[in-house]
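Record minuted for completeness.

…
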Amino acid sequence: MVLVPVNNLPTGPGLNQAAASSQSQARPLIHVVNDALPPMTDDQEDQDQKDVSPHTCRHCSKITIDMRQNSKDGKDDGQIGFTEADVISALKDNCALFSAFRQGAYLVSMTSGPDNPIWVERTLKQPAIVNFFEVDWERLKLGYKMNNRLGEFVLYNVPGQKPHELFGPQPPPNLLPNSELSYSRARKYLRDCSANHTKCREFNLSHMPTRLLEVVTRPNSPNPDEPHLIVRLVSNPPPAPYATLSYCWGGDQPGKTTKRNIGTYSRNIPLDVLPLTIIDALTVTHGVGMKYLWVDALCIIQDSDRDKMNEISNMHLIYRGAFLTVAAGVASTSLDGFLRPRVHDRGYVFNVRVDSPVGKQEGEIRQAIAMPVRSRRDQEMLPLYTRAWTFQEGQLSTRVLAYGNRGMVFCCLESRHTDGGLEEPITTLRSIYDSIGASFKNLDPGNQSLAGVRHPLAWGVIVEAYTSRELTMGDDKLLAVMAIAEEYKRIKEGVGEYLAGLWRGDMLFQLLWAAHRVSDVKTKFKRPERYRAPSWSWASLDGHFRIFLHQGVLDGSIGYKYACELLHAETTLVGGNPLGQVKGGFIRLRGRVKKVVWKRNGTGKHDHGYGWALGDLESDWVKSGEVPGDDRLSWYVDVPDEWPVKRDIVMSCIEVCTYEAPENLMQFAMVQLYDERGGSPNMTQGRGILLVPVEGQPGTYRRVGTMGCKGYLEGDVGFEKKPYWFDEGHSMRQEVVVI
């Protein structure tokens, strides 16, 4: 594919030579065109905020992209064929295409002058030309390369013009989510799902919440295209389909329901007291033809602890009973709203040379809409998908209308659709689950990604996904996952009693949770000032946690065995709900216990530290050029900042499990989570819990981390093959109580 210059502008080879020579030129010779460009005026910025139609103008329309099958593609001869004078003229005329390249980049030429060729770079370190090239013939995407970074445009047929098969059947994204086009598509998806999807009908419960918002329109509205909504709070509503709202609070809620205003709200709720996100949700509810909406801030009496606990305990029923969930993915707070025009995603009209249907060698010129492709992370990390309370809402819903950066996505248990355009990626936390056949999704109606995964591995996935999200009030740690725990108990066999975020079934496996030290989630591991769970529960700490995940735990391929016994486990509840908050709890274990010495490095985020068995000398384990400490041990202290640096800390470790190192060590390194020092196929590995004694309570401990160990069984010990760590030296089988 070739980018064809127009009006005798500089050709590709000339620009390639300029770019190559620039790397050998002295830096002062480089002229930054941005310095000579006019600033964007307020009128231009205001216009940008209103217009979502694809941009075209006399400047960017000079570009013609050759997409003929017999044209050269993937080559570096498709540069922007514009001079500095051309670029400055385009930017003075507010050409959106060149403005987009200008943002976050520099427009550069070798020296100042109107006839100098132009290229684009993100930094001044390595000038690079913008190259266009084809990357996907099946679903046409137009790629570009800018300073060795790849980007993409997706090409669509221009609505109203004769379509070309090269651009596929999908219409371009609808950048106006608050439009009849968007609502008509949503109504179509909902009708099809309701009529034809057996899974969705079976998952959807017949449940009516205590209160709902009734949404109707004022009779004889002066503007039918913008109906005036009338909203009131209805208690004990009659059976009818209702929608729920999943959104970020982002602070205290204006207009929330209280004991004082609930009587007034039962007659009418003035829209001017409500935040924009809730108003937008009311608009969507009406737009898709529904009458009722459930919003926690308005349907729960916010200054009544009794009402809050009653409604929170029914959250799984509320979301499973809803006909539809409206997910305000793009809104960071309730004040933001989510129906605004997606002006920053407006496309560009490109001229494209395509193969002629009658075989003309020169082809024919068609127009196409080029839409920039957003990065996967840009879509996955929407505000809604970073909040802990919203985690369960996307999993327990039957149908979801999710409003992201580019517009609306509909998904249910059997289908996914978009409001035009290609589907936005809404999958997250992918890689670690390959070994257990599951990938977790932000929006997964019916929690289907974990449907075929057995307990306790499925719960490990949930814990990791849930704890990756932010929680404003730490005391809500167990409350915010209560609904999904209720659903998990219903669908999974052998889970047993729920104990502060863990299940009695295979509880020893779940005790081996550990801090996710390589997480890209911005969270600090800390122990809260107020008690909220026993130390053996992940809910006792703030942070992102993982549980040992490998299919071999269930299928026997790694010889996974429990090495200790769970003699007793219990918790003391705050209220009457066994899935809710706790004020105490303990477990009693019997197994091999060995004392260790641990020393903190003080090296920041990945401060694993090092150590050895109590009774050994540190000098025995400190060798030149190697990691200090016993190399058979891997340390994962929960909150390293609790401990002084370079001080010997005596702990006890109780052995919980053993297993064999899988043959595929690289794969195992991806999923076994916290043994960075590897192993070999005939090596035994183990996991244990690190404990410190509770002052004044003999035989009672609190958990402070986990530890991995390894070594060879007696018959395999030899030169440079050390014994399995728990088999060496002094260890006692004893009972311990952990609180």
User: Anything to note?
Assistant: The CA atoms of residues 183 and 287 lie 6 Å apart.
